[in-house]
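Sequence only, no structure available. Ideas?
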Amino acid sequence: MSDEDKVSLCRKYFYIGFACLPFLWLVNSVWFFKYAFGNGSSHEDVSSSTARKPLRRYVTYSMIGSAVWIVAIVAWITTFQLKRAQWEATGDYLSFNIPRGIP
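Reply:
I predicted one. Tokens follow.
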């Protein structure tokens, strides 16, 4: 794959990740990390610095975006699990499975 194709694919994954697909940002950052931040000794690394610069930007932003999404999802899951019983009917409406027993 040429350097321009790598940058183009990385850019596409980054912009598609804005459609609430944090997993795609994670894949983008893992997949292109060695091309963006590699030492340049391998033949698979991006050869030109003009292609490496945008790759670094997209990979860095993908890492930041996926980290923000992961923190937000963990915060929501923790809040929901701890407060669902206190929310009464609203918590039940948000639940797919309503647990039996005393909360």
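Helices lie at 3-16, 22-37, 49-83, 89-94.
Hope that gets you unstuck.
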